[in-house]
Amino acid sequence: PNPSLLILPGDGIGPEVMTEVRRVVSWFGDKRGLNFDVSEDLVGGAAYDAHGTPLTDATMDKAQAVDAVLLGAVGGTKYDNLDFSVKPERGLLRLRKEMDLFANLRPAQCFDALADFSSLKRDVVAGLDIMIVRELTSGIYFGEPRGIIEEGNERVGINTQRYSESEIERVARSAFELAMKRDKKLCSMEKANVMESGVLWREVVTRVGADYPEVELSHMYADAGAMQLTRWPKQFDVIVTDNLFGDMLSDLAAMLTGSLGMLPSASLGLPMANGRPKALYEPVHGSAPDIAGQGKANPIACILSFAMALRYSFDQGEEAARLERAVEAVLAQGLRTPDLLGEENRAPVTTSEMGDAILAALDAS
Ligand code: NAI
Ligand code: MG
């Protein structure tokens, strides 16, 4: 049977960028014989409008059953005053939680044509291609005890960094598996110098590393890692780190490469019966209500999210690279959606024109 893909376009620019992704998915079926069983459903505000909930149980069941979920974005001003329990974001949170997506993959990839768009010097970022794996379901954002308590005559805010060996082990394993599909280099970041959770993190990652002798493993304190990421990011291939450090380091790494409209992501869980990990792919950006409905959205972040699905869910690394080269080619031709223009005095292309160009580049590949 064909691998299955559930498309959840969502709200705002989500459906606009997903229209272009659907064309790309079809292209791989028509021209490369890579056919997917594609189904489609509502999430976020769109699901709330139709069903009164941001994610129905039926959609949740579908997401659990497919090989990969591809999501656009959720949210919008229209839903700002909804009760917390039915806010669009809850749909996404439910997917992440019930699929137990503990490994968040955030690549920072710099296309040569956009190297001058980075906040760093061209030679520091040109050709950059690294991946940060952030633990997503544990750590200080979830640890107990937490809260604001009275102590003496003042209040104290408390959060707890907490990692079990099994939580560290499973995210470490995902990172090693990824490293095997990339340059076989993994750097683990924590603060073992001042945090017990960091000591355990380092120990467990090292132990898991014994199963991956081909991967060159190194360790770095997370603060030093932040420095190294801005000084010479090309020294890294895959970085694995906890929820809190990963939140900051992945945002930092994202800005090495420029626009939000370019950034894909993946969230992976445990392997299913067929060996593929539970997986949700989505652009890093949100529903961008300020530009929705105007043909201004950059579809590349969502298209590159599908490239990640090809590589990490469907073992189609060559085809993923083909798609990434097509993106590189249209950027090299000078095509820019408005978010990629900055101060440049050039006519922007629309969302669908960007899609047309990427399909043409695929045809030429
Ligand atoms: P946002 O990412 O939607 O937009 C931030 C800025 O970047 C805006 O100026 C927007 O126009 C621009 N931008 C974002 N994606 C773009 C693209 N593909 N092409 C061109 N420009 C792009 O974040 P914001 O404005 O904070 O949130 C808007 C809504 O999206 C809110 O309801 C928020 O809750 C939701 N959101 C949803 C996320 C998700 O579905 N994963 C993630 C972040 C926010
Ligand atoms: Mg963040």
UniProtKB/TrEMBL annotation:
It catalyses: (2R,3S)-3-isopropylmalate + NAD(+) = 4-methyl-2-oxopentanoate + CO2 + NADH. Its EC number is 1.1.1.85. Substrate binds at residues 96, 106, 134, 223. Residues 4-358 form the Isopropylmalate dehydrogenase-like domain. NAD(+) binds at residues 76-89, 286-298. Binds 1 Mg(2+) or Mn(2+) ion per subunit. Transmembrane segments: none annotated. Belongs to the isocitrate and isopropylmalate dehydrogenases family. LeuB type 1 subfamily. Catalyzes the oxidation of 3-carboxy-2-hydroxy-4-methylpentanoate (3-isopropylmalate) to 3-carboxy-4-methyl-2-oxopentanoate. The product decarboxylates to 4-methyl-2 oxopentanoate. Homodimer. This is 3-isopropylmalate dehydrogenase. It comes from Roseivivax sediminis. The lineage of its organism: Bacteria, Pseudomonadati, Pseudomonadota, Alphaproteobacteria, Rhodobacterales. The gene is leuB.
